[in-house]
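hey all, quick one before standup. I had two proteins in the batch that finished overnight and I want to keep them in one place so we stop losing track of which output belongs to which input. First protein below, input sequence then structure tokens straight from the run.
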Amino acid sequence: MVNSFTKKRKENIYLSDDDLSILKRYDIDYNNFSNMKELMFYIEDIINNGDGQDDLEDLLIKLNDYNYYFYTNK
């Protein structure tokens, strides 16, 4: 549970320690992206090319939820 807490890692990017470990498995460096949407598009490309596993798909869903929560005016 401790590793699931979301933290601001970079301007406009929020990730938990668990999220970072999944990104590391796929050699994805979140520092190469300026915002969550860019990161999400990159992950989606990996999944669409058949190179991602279920954990990467789950992460994409989670990031989509983060993006909605942090950047949508409610």
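OK second protein, same deal, sequence then tokens:
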Amino acid sequence: MSMLFDASLAELSRLKGAEYSFLKQLSAPEGQPTRAWLEGIGAAVGSPVAQRATDLLNSLDNRRFFQGFAELSVSETLLRSGWGVSDLSWPGPTLAVTSPDGTPYNVIVLAFIRQVRLKPDRQTIERLIRSLNRVSSRTRIAVHIQRWLPHDLDPEPIRRAVELWLRDVDRHGSQDRYAVYSDANVSLEFALTAERARAGQSVVAFTVAPCTGQATMELVESRILSALDAYRLGPLGRQPVLLACVTEQPWQLSRGWIRQLLYGKPGWAGTMGTPPAFEVAFDEKSDPGIFRDPLYRVLGGALLIDRALDGAALAARAYLNPWSNTPLPTASLSVQRLAPDRSEHNHTVLRWLDAVA
């Protein structure tokens, strides 16, 4: 059975509007490689998993569509590592999977759709900078973009306002080092850098994009804890579980933030060993994270998966839980992973391992 109904795709490709819909985007000719990729995963998983994905993927609701995409993305990552993905477990549902050594796990799949579209937003910022670089003044400035710019931004009114400000600075030596441009859709702050643009230099010295990492991390943490609490209080609560967080574009989260959320604050960290790799160590005095919480000892590890901006290629990283009641063997996942390496001076030492080709 085809996961994406050909008749529906043909109708969608002719539908006016709905360009926001992932399904509508997938119906375009350039979506064919992604469709084939999804079909290939659907053919490799158990029938209940494929049927659920079919239902979710044939929806114009992006939340439902991307949940189906996320579950197949997790399935593909596990299949490449030698796991079996055969069934669903309820409530949830969660994916019912089997590790390469035959241990059954459930997988909680959390799908995240971010409002920021990295490639279009970069293009909008670049368009703004090109316009600002046309001001007649050679006084260099920094630009702080306080919220994401609309994609149909007209940068010319902003350029004219900045030019008037810089002209005043050049003529009168204004001590006002900062200026603000704000309307219903745009919020920008400009700062003088105390230097003049030399030949070949742009007026814009640098830009600072909106800082959304902390807000994203708080959202991820909230959803993880909510899902884990629902799992442990449900009928499956004593069964081993994996957590998978999937987003439709690259995560823009510090690895340190993620590591501290899962493992807690380390006793020490650094690059060492042969071959050199990043290592991090925890002891009983370290501030705890999710993995060390006694409530979540059924949690074997976490997968963070994102999709490249162009195409369906996935990037996955795994974080293995050394304190789990059912710890995952280091070789059980072929992706890049932070895995237990050794015990040393009352510390549990973890090490980043490269993906297995």
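Flagging for whoever picks this up: The mean pLDDT is 87. DSSP finds nine helices and 14 strands in the chain.
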